[in-house]
Amino acid sequence: MTESDTPLRLGWEEWVALPGLGLPALKAKVDTGARTSALHAFDIETFGSINRPKVRFAVHPVPGRTDLTIACSAAIKDRREVTSSNGEAELRYVIETDLAVGGTSTPIEVTLTDRGTMAYRMLLGRQAIQSDWVVAPAESFCQEKLSYDIYSTARVKQAAPKRALRIAVLSREDNYSTRRLVAEGEERGHTIEVIDTTRCYMAINALAPEIHYDGARLPRYDAVIPRIGASVTSYGTAVLRQFETIGTYCVNGSAGITASRDKLHAHQLLARHKIGMPQTAFAASPKDTDNIIGLVGSGPLIIKLLESTQGKGVVLAETKKAAQSVIDAFRGLKANFLVQSFVKEAAGEDIRCLVVDGKVVAAMKRTAGGDDFRSNLHRGGKASAVRITKAEREAALKSAKLFGLGLAGVDLLRSEDGPKLLEVNSSPGLQGIEEATGKNVAAHLFDAIEKHVRPRPVRKRRGA
């Protein structure tokens, strides 16, 4: 008999791996008395469509190490009643995954149950033992010995499979951006749920903070993509803070969204970090109208409401007198506003850089339509792909990082002395830039999400 014909020999305990679940090392008890294999799992939760149901769960692969958690997901193959050795019956989810042991790999069925009190995180039942394998109950570790140390290295992250995720999109609108996120996510096998931010309500407490929606507690999400409109910034960021409190990965954080939406605060942050912008002034007293105009120049000037979006509430005053009239009108409405110098050389054009996870993944030039000085696409502006300069790229990346945004639309003007930053948008639209550049921006976003929610290695504890 050749070495290749030698049957695989298993002891009563063996090192195994479940690579499809991101578990490269487990100690398993081999039990031919048990029909079905079982894997330790907790926080077991179903998701996905009724036709293609999935289950997500967490595993503590190392006995006694509750600080190390691996998140897993798989398609549900069955749900069946299993009777344990102590005679208790339990209804368990059944999944199929590859078992790697002794240089071989074979698909097996595994039931999910909490084995947190057991010495072995996995039980290998007789269904998983192939007909040409030999079990030697008096021996142990007949096959290659693995090590739990792998969970403390980068290798576990690199080898982790791309698991199906449950992702929430916080959005009140059924628009192109929301539909693209749903379509791209589902194409990758994820479950994407659109949640109306204003219909969420929260239980705020120290021990068990929760988010509820339509009379039920929201499930545990792997990630949240906030698409919070300017009109609901305050409540939307409060909901987002609640997701942050329970440990959900959020593409954009509540603090970054709040800071970027407050144009005065945003410009002060940008100035503090020496990011170029048009000359800007702000004052509360009507007595200082002429003074703030004098700070930015005689004209033309831009008067911009602090809450302006998509070009609304932004006025071009050609002369000092026109600027005084607009400022008086805004003050009569008790509105807060900024006054900025007008960058003539921009000629009604600006640059939108789309930043995802610290990279500019697309850039377009927007040109104002007709006689309008505003280049916003919502106001009839035209878009085309553009090659940005190194200085423009650096300004976009620095700005997105400053606000801690994983997804940002950074708007710049091209001036004679370098790029001037106009705005950092925490909920940038995808339609204009995808159509103008032909790039799949949504795919870049999901690449980033998948990277961030994959299992992370942990440092080995001292004395462990």
TrEMBL record:
ATP-grasp domain span: 267-450
Highest taxon above the source species: Bacteria
UniProt KW Ribosomal protein keyword: yes
Sequence intervals crossing the membrane: none
Cofactors named for this entry: Mn(2+); Mg(2+)
Assigned keywords, A-Z: ATP-binding, Ligase, Magnesium, Manganese, Metal-binding, Nucleotide-binding, Protein biosynthesis, Ribonucleoprotein, Ribosomal protein
Pfam families: RimK, Rimk_N, Zn_protease
GO molecular function list: ligase activity
One GO location term (cellular component): ribosome
UniProt keyword Nucleotide-binding, yes or no: yes
InterPro entries listed in its UniProt record: Asp_endopeptidase, ATP-grasp, ATP-grasp_RimK-type, ATP_grasp_subdomain_1, Peptidase_aspartic_dom_sf, Rimk_N, Rp_bS6_RimK/Lys_biosynth_LsyX
NCBIfam families with a match to the protein in the record: PRK10446.1, rimK_fam
PANTHER family assigned: RIBOSOMAL PROTEIN BS6--L-GLUTAMATE LIGASE, RIBOSOMAL PROTEIN S6 MODIFICATION PROTEIN
Name the record gives this protein: 30S ribosomal protein S6--L-glutamate ligase
Source taxonomy: Bacteria, Pseudomonadati, Pseudomonadota, Alphaproteobacteria, Rhodobacterales
Gene that specifies this protein: rimK
